[in-house]
Every structure is written in C-alpha cells, then in structure tokens.
Amino acid sequence: MSERKLTKAEERRKRTFELLEVQMQEKGYQKVELKLDALKANLLGVAVALPFIVIEIVIYVILYGNPFMQNHNELLFFVAMFVGIVVHELIHGITWASFAEKGWKSIEFGIIWKYATPYCTCNEPMKKRPMLLAAIMPTIVLGLLPAVSAIVFAQSFLLLFSIIMIIGGGGDMLIIGNILKYHSKAGELLYLDHPYEVGTIVFEKNNA
Fold first, then answer.
1. Is-contact 148 185, C-beta < 8 A?
2. Buried-most residue among 9, 13, 75, 187 (CB within 10 A)?
C-alpha cells in the first residue's frame, strides 16, 4: 500500500518534528508512536460515542418524548454544527496552550481542504494529564454539558447538537483510550500530538 501523500502543512510539521526528535534523543528520550488508522478511527469513534448517545436519548424520551419529531430550524442547526466544529478545535487549542511552556506559539490551527475539516495540533510535548485533558475537553464542553442542559430544560435542539458533538469527539476518546492502555516501565514519559497522523507520540526516558 502506498504511503499517504502529506499536505504542505503536514510536511512542514514533519520536518519540525524530526528536529524535535533529535533534540529529545540527545536528552535521553526514545520515541514510541501510538497511531490510529484514520478510517478505522472515524468508524470506531462513532461506536465509542454510541453508548453515551443512547443513554441521553433514552432519558430524554422517557421525560419528554421523541426529540426527532419536534420542529427545529434547520438552517440554525447547521450553523450551530459549523460553529461547534470550529469551537471544538479552539477548545483543544486553549487547553493545550494553557499547559504548553510556549503557550499559543506551540499551537497550530488549519483546515484539511480535502475533507473541509478544521484541526488543531500542539507541537510541544507535555505530561499525560494535560494531554488527556486537552483531548476530552471539547466533548465535555460541547457534548456532555449540552446533553445535561437539554435534559434539564427539555431542549431537543440542544440534545441533537450534543449528539453530533459527542460523535465528533469519538476520535478524541479513542486517542485517550490509546494513551491509557499504553504501559511503560520508563521513569519519565512525555506526550505529543502526532504532527501528521491520527494518534500520539510518546517520548520515554529511563532515569536510572
């Protein structure tokens, strides 16, 4: 199978990463790649999100009836979806920037034009907890909080919005799972958002 052709931005990040890798090796770190196949990640992401979606729909239906049968402004809904997708990436950036030593200088936003999909990435390694928090925050803010609000205030529009946002966070949850199931005996580990693939780079260092 031929290797995927990288975009210009991905090529640039790859070169930057290669320099970083050399610097990390000089400090005694070794690289481990926790990659996910992009297509499988999309499919599995939906599967991971499905239990959360089923739970919120069941609760809403029990309390208020079928949310899909209620009238909604379709244009407003699509605008909300677009804004939600952009804000999703912004939340990644805000969270990463709050932990990165170089702040916003370590954050990059862009658009994969082939799929009309915005993205956010961080080029600075960090510890596990900040990495996990940056991954899960968009789903919490845009998915889970609207779901709770929809149920509390009987807002079917918010429920449908939360469903899409939770699905959109499925890939992030897979990345979180990948990080959590990876075990290492190394004394120090730092995590980096993969610069041009779906997944994470782990830099390991034995302090013995």
1. no
2. 13
**C-alpha distances out from residue 92 to 1, 19, 75, 136, 206, Å:** 32, 24, 26, 8, 30
Cα separations (Å) of 4 from 1, 37, 54, 115?
9, 11, 35, 15
Compute φ and ψ for 3, nearest 5 degrees: -70, 145
User: In this predicted model, what pLDDT tens digit does every residue of 99-157 receive, in sequence order?
Assistant: 999 999 999 998 877 666 788 999 999 999 999 999 999 999 999 999 999 999 999 99
State the CB neighbour count (10 A cutoff) for residue 85: 18
Reading the block at residue 182, the tokens are 């990876």
User: What residues does each domain of the chain span?
Assistant: 8-205
Global pTM exceeds 0.85: yes
